[in-house]
Amino acid sequence: MPRPHSWLQAFRPASLLPAAAVAAYLAQAFPSAQGEPYAFVMSVTDQTGRPVSDLGRDEIVVTENGVAAEIMSVRPFRMPVALTIAVDNGPLSVDALAHYRTGLAGLVRALPEDMEVTLITTSPQPMMVVPPTDDRLRLLRGVNGFAPQEDSPRFTDTIVEFSRRYENALKETNRIASLPILLMVSTTAPEAVSYQVEEISHALQFLERRKARVYVAMLTVNRGASARAQINDGRQAIVAIPATKATRGRYEALASSNRLTSLLPDMGAEIAALHRRQVNQLVVTAQRQPGRRGPLQNAQIGLTRTGLTGSVTLDGLP
Asked: Which one-letter DSSP state was computed for residue 107?
């Protein structure tokens, strides 16, 4: 079967600070030579969970074998969420359409205004409805603008093409500039698939390595007492459940479409909180003490301001 035209055209985190795990993490990450500076990304929150991005050099303590390193600089670091919303608009989505629109509108309103969002539909193929934008009015018009189609939805193809979009971008730029999230609203209606098992597996493995996240709201189109139990037996769920688990996303099985009206805004709030964390990080550059050679030894990181917790990465991805 020929493949349809696709919309493609158009370091692991350490534990909370301070913690023993940070020592091993930094030691492995920075096998630096004598006197070389090294940098890492910090995400810090206060007791209420709000991001803290105003730390000064004197509020961060990095030690090696108990000897403090010089903090050379502390600078803002942004790694924003880039959200793609994919909606099943196949023939069996008609009855749920009103709940689609209400839930998606609530999701869009829950998102920060500076977050880039893309809206696509999956029938008859993954097609762009709203290209990447932070224009909320444009997104809301898009939410109310698509219509059900007669062709089968392409749930799995959408995941593959989402993965390829970011894999191609990484090859072209050799730079990670965002945390990609794919949020899919799907029915259990029979789907059409253009890709082979090997291509699907490659896509899922890349998303896991890329630290992308996949969220799925799976709505059954069956009726009766056993309908909910059958949701997770469909082809889409067989792909979605391991994908959401591997990417630390979220999977929700729904027996009724009216649940979308509250679930999607809730997912939006969760993604919004992650975005706020991502755009309020700090990149810290430290200088080793003279005479230090080889990997960092017994490295520890602490914060002098009370009531704060945080995590450390090399790339700013959670």
From this structure: H
Domain-located, residue 150: yes
Beta-carbon contacts of 49 under 8 Å, excluding residues fewer than 6 positions away, are: 273
Could you give the CA distance from residue 230 to residue 222 in angstroms, rounded to a whole number? 8
Give the number of other CB atoms < 10 A from CB of residue 277. 20
pLDDT digits (tens, 9 = 90+) for 143-187: 999 999 999 999 999 999 999 999 999 999 888 999 999 999 999
Q: Does any domain span residue 13?
A: no
Q: Is the pLDDT of residue 312 over 80?
A: yes
pTM: 0.88
CA distance 44 to 193: 43
Domain that holds residue 42: 20-78+279-313
DSSP H stretches of helix in 195-298: 197-210, 227-231, 235-246, 260-278
CB half-sphere exposure, 268, CA atoms < 13 A: 23
